[in-house]
Specification:
5-stranded antiparallel beta sheet; globular; Immunoglobulin-like; 15 strands; 286 residues; binds calcium ion
Length: 286
């Protein structure tokens, strides 16, 4: 297995986390449950923001309550460069707050949350990276760990986790075209009030599932089958992203509502006029 870190850096991380070994190689989103003496769990996965930008997301899945939580992430500087980090707590979205202090070098970044009382919300931390080049074998490795964990509920002080590898498959699957109309979430070739309601319902379900008010279309597409049960007929996430900002959120539903209202009032008669936005038939490569 390819080692992504130098020996010197490995020593820094081991000292940081007070452990001797590393976790097993994992692929795709993985649940990590290795904080000493704690029930705390998180999952790690990559969101592709653009062709040259990704976010490594560390999302809490089980949170007994913590006053302090510190994540550290190692990355391979051959392939990635840090851009910044951000976190979402419940519906609060604060992406790209800026760089955080490096713990031990140019390819180790960290974030620590401190609070007077236990935080029990499931949180999402995003570490943003610019892709410098794609690994020749199509796989990139990150390593994550909780380097500090304090919990009043669990009566833990400065507990920690074993570093765990996270493997990101950079090879995308063969592309196929999906034709859709922006706003036509049920794919009946018409954009109407029903689509607005369905988009609003989908947005609420996405928020409940992922804990974000704005859910990236890339993420919804990754689990499209799951969301078809909530929004039957959905050809792809982009159909619900009526303001085409790359996220599904309430504004998309209001956008469709506005369009259908304007049609009803005779203010517009063209599917391509929705305020400043356009509802267009598009072929999506997924
Ligand atoms: Ca429709
Ligand atoms: Ca949107």
């Amino acid at each position: 297995m390819k080692k992504m870190i130098s020996k010197a850096m490995a020593i820094v991380v081991a000292a940081m986390c007070m452990v001797a070994g590393v976790g097993a190689l994992t692929a795709g989103a993985t649940t990590i449950n290795v904080v000493e003496g704690s029930k705390y769990e998180y999952t790690a996965y990559v969101e592709e923001i653009s062709d040259t930008e990704i976010a490594l997301v560390l999302r809490t899945t089980v949170n007994p309550g913590f006053t302090s939580l510190g994540y550290a992430v190692e990355f391979d500087p051959t392939y990635f460069k840090t851009i910044g980090e951000g976190r979402n707590i419940k519906t609060e979205v604060t992406p790209r707050k800026g760089m955080i202090a490096s713990l031990g070098g140019d390819h180790l970044v960290s974030l620590q949350i401190l609070n007077r009382d236990d935080i029990t919300d499931n949180i999402e931390i995003r570490f943003y990276f610019e892709t410098i080049k794609t690994p020749s074998n199509g796989k990139a490795e990150f390593k994550t760990c909780v380097f500090s964990y304090w919990s009043q509920t669990e009566n833990l002080e400065n507990s920690y986790s074993t570093p765990d590898y996270f493997e990101y498959d950079t090879v995308t699957e063969a592309k196929t075209g999906v034709e859709y109309i922006v706003g036509d979430v049920d794919n009946d070739k018409d954009v109407d009030q029903g689509d607005a309601y369905k988009t609003l319902s989908l947005t609420q379900k996405l928020t409940n599932a992922y804990g974000t008010v704005k859910t990236p279309t890339t993420r919804v597409n990754e689990e499209l089958t799951r969301w078809l049960s909530v929004c039957p007929g959905l050809p792809c996430a982009e159909a619900a992203d009526s303001d085409t900002d790359g996220y599904i959120e309430e504004n998309d539903a209001y956008n469709i509502q506005l369009y259908t209202s304007q049609i009803a009032l005779g203010q517009i008669g063209d599917i391509e006029d929705v305020g400043a936005k356009r509802l267009v038939s598009t072929t999506y490569e997924c």
